[in-house]
Amino acid sequence: MIDLCVIGAGPAGLMAAETAVDRGLSVLIIDAKPSFGRKFLMAGKSGLNLTKNEPFENFLRSYNDATEWLSPIIKEFDNQSAINWAQNLGQTIFTGSSNRVFPTNMKASPLLRAWLIRLSDKGVKFNQGWRWLGWENEDAVFQTSGGKKFIKSRTTVLALGGASWSRLGSDGEWANILADQDIPITPFKPSNMGFSVNWSKHMLPHFGSPIKSIRLTSGSFSSLGECVISSKGLEGSGIYAASKSMREGNPLMLDLLPDLDLRTLISRFEKLPKKASRSTIVRKVLRLDKAKTAIFNEFSQGAQLKNIITIAKALLISHLGPRPIEEAISTAGGVPRLALNNQLMLKSKPGIFCAGEMLDWEAPTGGYLITGCLATGKCAGSGASDFILL
Ligand SMILES: Cc1cc2nc3c(=O)[nH]c(=O)nc-3n(C[C@H](O)[C@H](O)[C@H](O)COP(=O)(O)OP(=O)(O)OC[C@H]3O[C@@H](n4cnc5c(N)ncnc54)[C@H](O)[C@@H]3O)c2cc1C
Question: Distance, CA 236 to ligand 1 centroid (Å)?
Answer without folding.
Answer: 19
